[in-house]
Design goal:
Number of helices: 4
Number of strands: 0
Structural class: mainly alpha
Radius of gyration: 18 Å
Largest sheet: none
Distance between the termini: 44 Å
Helix content: 55-70%
Shape: elongated
Length: 121
């Protein structure tokens, strides 16, 4: 078991870089699609039949919540953790909501729940 998070810092930095690259790529292509074609046809507000998969994706996104206690304990000022966590969580929710909304507006019903080959249509 790891007692400090210092051993994971390089791997976490690489993972964060890959995540930023992926989100940037998705925003670039959806932005290009929205600019060239506009908002897709048949964009619905809610798909109740796929709500289970949506909730599963939400749980996956916040899967790292188990790292909260070790991070808080390793901080020099643990009292500053809760306000920082609130700001970071709000920023992440806004980021993922922006990427998801942009993709759905750009591609409409052709948007897949998961990234996989284009056989989901």
């Amino acid at each position: 078991m790891l007692k400090t998070l210092k051993k994971l810092s390089v791997a976490a930095l690489i993972a964060d870089g890959a995540l930023v690259f992926g989100l940037g790529t998705v925003l670039y292509y959806t932005g290009t699609q929205l600019r060239d074609v506009g908002i897709a046809d048949k964009v619905d507000a809610v798909h109740w039949d796929t709500m289970g998969t949506f909730v599963g994706n939400l749980v996956y996104v916040f899967e790292g919540v188990g790292m909260i206690i070790p991070i808080e304990q390793s901080m020099q000022q643990p009292g500053a953790f809760v306000p920082l966590m609130v700001v970071v969580t709000i920023c992440l929710v806004m980021l993922f909501a922006t990427v998801g909304l942009a993709g759905y507006l750009a591609y409409g019903p052709m948007t897949c729940q998961m990234v996989k080959p284009i056989d989901c249509m």
